[in-house]
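Q: Got a minute? One more chain.
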Amino acid sequence: MPDEQKVFTVIGAAAAITIIALLYGTISIQAAEAKIEARDLVVSSMGAKGDTNPVKSQPTPEPAEITLTLIVSSPHKNIASLLSLLLQLKQLPDIKVIGEKTLEKDSGEAKQLIEKYSIERIPAMLLEGETKKAATLSQNWPKIGSVESDGTMVLRNIPPVYLETSTGKLRGEINAAFISVPDKNGVFDANEVFTQILQNAFGIRPISQETLRYDSPRGKELVSKYGLEKLPTFIISGDLNAYSGFPESWKEIGSVEPDNSFVFRELGAIGGIKYLDLNKNEVVETLRQQ
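A: Always. Here it is, folded:
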């Protein structure tokens, strides 16, 4: 597929969905903005006085000392990873991680923490120590978690797939079927595009997926069963209610079938791609998004 066709835009509600990775990103973004604002303040004060002499820098405050605890469930290989957030926290200039430990959810210490802080999802992350001293944490942590009365910060907005502590069940496991059109010149790569849509727009990483040719026996069965008219497409099923706002947002770009499968139908929402219109039996190109 040509490079320009790999750049696509999903319009409608899908583009507005905020996934947890974006919330994690606010921490590092805010830290960068703070540096820029501090720099601009110095430049502004120099210009106002017409003074070209360097402004004496203020002593850099000592970073807040933080102890970090992760609660995990190693037997469950499909649950979300907090590694990205952990690495971002360690890079913040106003905190210093002086201690770090990982607890299995069934350990005695983990059980005490789960009960004490009413932790509902595993994996979990707790920050203890001088949490109030770090401005970046104080300003941004409420977007992704809670600040307890003892100052402990508990991560709450864990994205699927996670382990629900009240039931012991995994939430957010999804299966996907991609229906491809490999024999039509110029039709986009179903695996590449649909994987990006699921991950980037919805935060979904299927635990299992299969790619089927539209003219294979199984492909024909799905085309007939769901009355598919535009291909490629994808069908997902599973615990989609674990993804906040997903069922409502999906209505703009697909259908919900009687068997609770979700079928992607609005190929026109992807700019600058070619797809097969089965009613016309011809390849159609969508408009590029400006």
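A: The CA atoms of residues 128 and 152 lie 5 Å apart.
Q: Perfect, thanks.
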